[in-house]
Amino acid sequence: MRNSSVQSLYQYLSNIYAPVLFGEQGEQSMKKDNQLRELVMSLKAGLQKTLRKGGLSMAHTEFNQDEFRGILSPLDEIEAWIEVEREGIASQGNEKLRAKAELINKHFEKAAKPLNDMETMDLGQVSAMVDSIQDALDGIWQDPNIHPVYPQARMEHFFKVTTRVLGARVEREFKQTDIWQTSFSNVRLKLNECMKIFRGWKDRCNELTREFWRSQRTQHKWQGKPFYDNYLENIIIRMTSIFELRSQHDELLRLLTPEE
Prior knowledge:
Shape: globular
Number of helices: 9
Number of domains: 2
Largest sheet: none
Mean pLDDT: 85
Low-confidence stretches: none
Distance between the termini: 58 Å
Radius of gyration: 22 Å
Number of strands: 0
Order of helices and strands: HHHHHHHHH
Strand content: under 5%
Helix content: over 70%
């Protein structure tokens, strides 16, 4: 509540009330009450839209590109700019902002579908998706027609939420496969693919913020240190540690008898 009443209400609705009302336990009792379901989902969608626009109170109606606490995933960011373009066309109230959103959306098109389909992709496709995200972000950052320029703090936030979405995707992968009990020959490929995803994303972030966006040819320059995400670093360390432990265990099984 100290930060935002809207954000708090959205979190309570998403994480507590909606699961209780419409989850497995409440599904039977609420199944017939479609009107309540529609009202709750409508409220949830409205709150989420307000947060994507940067609003921290119900009185806030204008888009604020410097406020992004409501952006919890890369798809939230993409949807926020789609809404700005759509509402701008309807109202024509802020032609410059609408035109900026239109340009940003053209670049985001490269990444929108892969991000939306990520849940159904195999790990190899997720790894390839990282390149699509890099191309989209590089286009947005260096497009000379985007005024004012895309904020650096917002871009850093996009990097972070993308890392967390990738982390959640890999975590779900290993809920299906026991990383410790499954034979190493079966889990080795998945571990390698997961490390490829995270190391590839780290490399792309470094290329953009350490090299491409610091170039003399770039008008919109990255300021300060290159992007660093402690969460991403810890994921890579953890995946490497798991791979080494399983490798050593597999080698010991080859060298020693079952009793030993």
